[in-house]
Every structure is written in structure tokens, then in C-alpha cells.
Design goal:
The chain has 203 residues and is an all-alpha fold. It has helices spanning 2-16, 18-28, 34-65, 70-90, 94-99, 109-118, 121-129, 138-160, 162-201. This is UPF0056 membrane protein.
């Protein structure tokens, strides 16, 4: 069970990337008061958690309605995760890319903080793959939800203490960590594709 929890934690920490969100949060809240920063961090974390919980509950139902086997989704999801990982490794780092999306007219807690910084496409795919009802027991699905919410909570805490943390790692440090997370994510993505192909071919 501990191995399962650790594996899920690493995957969610990689796709949600709380550390990579710190520079985005700092850029967004540069002119905000301490109280306002707390409100933005809380709203971003709660919104991201809500989005991911929605796909935990409704994701597989949506696939069933449109008659797409989860093995097909796992293969497609793995490919998307792999492409997402490549952008983390070779493209602009997460902080650089998402800071460029900041629009003063938008609710910054929702965009780009909650979506796509925390509830990223990779996180949505991960939560759907790890809560497949035919593959995982209710207990395992519950563990997935708890781990996912724990990572989102960690992201919220890191945003609250972002100024102090950023003094130590800087934007370059956050970019390096984001790229390392991308490398780990690429391995997870390949595993998902191979697992999906195995399930599809053995039917």
C-alpha cells in the first residue's frame, strides 16, 4: 500500500507541479496585499481540486457515454502526457509559459493558476487513469483522491509561502525542477501507453 501511495504521489506531484506554480503565483500577485494573496492561493487550490474531483467522478462516465474503452483513452492519454512532458523538458518551462498567459482582465486565481497550472491536462488524465472502476477497487480510488487532494493542498501551502521559497530557488531553480518533473512524466507516459496497448491486445 505504501508503494502504491508513493507512486501515485510522485505522479500527481509531477503533473500538478506545485513548485513550478510558485513563480506563476508570484508574478500574478506581485501587486497584491498579503491578505489578497491568501485569498488567491485558497481560491486557486479549491478550484483546481474541484476540477480534478469532477473528472474523477464524471470522466469515466463521459467515456462510457461516447463508447470509448478506457484502454484506448489510456493509450491516447499516455501519448498526450508524453507530448506534455516534452514541452516541459524542451519547450518553455512551466513558469515562463504560464506567466505569458496572464491577463489583467481575468480572474487570475482561476486562470492561469487553477487551470492550467494546477489542474493541468496531465493532472486530469492522471486522475481519470488512476480511478478506473474496472481496474481499481473503491479503496484504491479513494487513496488516489486523497493523494491528489494532498498534492493540491501542498501547492496551496507553497503559494502561501511562495515569496520565502522563491528567494532560495529563484526562477531558474523552478524551471530546472519543472524539467526534471517532465523527464519523470515522460517515463510515466510511456508506461501508460504500453499498459494500454497490452490491455487492448489481450482482449
Amino acid at each position: 500500500m505504501l508503494h502504491l501511495i508513493f507512486t501515485k504521489f510522485i505522479m500527481f506531484f509531477t503533473v500538478i507541479d506545485p513548485i513550478g506554480t510558485i513563480p506563476v503565483f508570484i508574478a500574478i500577485t506581485a501587486k497584491s496585499s498579503t491578505a489578497k494573496k491568501l485569498v488567491i492561493a485558497k481560491k486557486a487550490a479549491l478550484t483546481a481540486a474541484g476540477v480534478l474531483l469532477f473528472f474523477t467522478i464524471a470522466g469515466e462516465i463521459i467515456l462510457n457515454v461516447i463508447n470509448i474503452p478506457l484502454s484506448n483513452f489510456q493509450i491516447a492519454g499516455g501519448i498526450v502526457l508524453f507530448l506534455f512532458a516534452l514541452t516541459m523538458i524542451f519547450g518553455e518551462s512551466k513558469p515562463e509559459e504560464e506567466i505569458s498567459h496572464i491577463d489583467n482582465q481575468e480572474d487570475k486565481a482561476v486562470f492561469p493558476l487553477a487551470i492550467p497550472s494546477l489542474a493541468s491536462p496531465g493532472a486530469i488524465l492522471a486522475v481519470m487513469l488512476l480511478t478506473e472502476k474496472n481496474k481499481y477497487s473503491f479503496q484504491e480510488q479513494l487513496v488516489t483522491v486523497v493523494v491528489m487532494l494532498s498534492v493540491v493542498a501542498i501547492a496551496g501551502l507553497l503559494m502561501v509561502f511562495s515569496t520565502k521559497i522563491f528567494k532560495y530557488i529563484g526562477n531558474s531553480g523552478a524551471a530546472i525542477i519543472s524539467r526534471v518533473m517532465g523527464l519523470i512524466l515522460s517515463a510515466v507516459a510511456v508506461h501508460n501507453v504500453l499498459e494500454g496497448l497490452t490491455e487492448y491486445l489481450t482482449k
